[in-house]
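A favour, since you know our structure tokens better than I do. Would you make up a two-line entry for one protein for me to read? Write everything out right here, beneath this request.
=====
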Amino acid sequence: MNQKPTLWTKDFIMISVANFLLFVSFYMLMVTLAIYSIEQFQASQSMAGLASSIFVLGAVIVRPIAGKMIETVGRKRLLVFGTALFFVIMLLYFPVNSLGLLLLIRFVHGFAFGIGSTATGTIAVEVIPPVRRGEGMGYFATSMNLAMAIGPFLGLIISNYFVDSMIFVATTIFSIVALVASFLMNVPEKEKVTQDQPVKKGFRLSDYFEKTTFPIAIFVAICGFAYSSILSFMTAYATEINLVDAASFFFVMYAVFLVLSRPITGRMFDLKGENSVMYPSIFLFGVGLIVLSQVQLGIMLLIAGAIIGIGFGTLQSSAQTIAVNRAPNHRVGLATSTFFVFYDFGIGIGPFLLGFILPLTGFRGLYLGMAAIAFIAIAIYYFAHGKKSTERNRHQVKDISETMSS
């Protein structure tokens, strides 16, 4: 009887831990830096949003470069460099005394995050046994999904009950552990290009981006833009409506219901196709934003967190699967990089632009507007991928019917 190769090896655990801690730190800072900027430097809403999101813009810029460099520099070297830089820049938050300096540090910190997270995603594919790659990548993706919930939760708890600098203390500790995990793993490296193989020169967009990913990536950038309103302004919104304690558990509900729904949505995706998951998920995301905009009681805030967890959490991971499935096998890495460039851009530009809108709409109006964007995204998904998926499934059913009747 053949045994399955081991999935939970030391290297797989180390890369998952490093990835989780990088993303936890990212989300902790994302939800707290806006209000920190307002309290410490009297920043406007738009500048506070920029302090939160400029980190992501730095990551967007560096991701394609890191994706192209990783084969020549080496996976482990790039990961160690990224996590080491992430740690060093974390130390620079402590002496910051001006908004301009904070913006600069956040931007460079985004470079470190982009390098580190690009390396973790690439390494994960290599340390997972090929026959268990689907299962392994599912668990690896869960480390990001959990970080998306646990990071904001920890950030809000620390900002509510401790001095502001404790956010930086916690994320510094996480970056140290991520760096140690990077050193401890053994990473298989691919052979470098031999001299008899042709070397293509000059700049080509296809060296950095996968074109088949663009439609679904544009869709997820728009959804990420809407979701960024929650990441950056939840603390301020909860303070305004006197639900700070309940807001701390918003992201816990997000995580719990996302994890509980994952086996069901994953099975639906495989058996009935991506549209059976994507359309309900986008709709639930919009419904959750409407509930969030009308919150009066703590229980309503938690219900909104549960609905948005199922909706946005599922559509984000499902869209990533679509991006990978559409790309040629030898360009799966570029497809992943392209997907996250667009996703990061949506998350990153959102708080800055929404900061200009917020004074005109208020928080409730802002979240209603984001709900409208979510519902419009249903049509965007239809044209980006849903229509093609329906036609492809129709042809498959027709072919099966013809085969059975012949």
Summary: The chain has two domains: 7-190, 209-406.
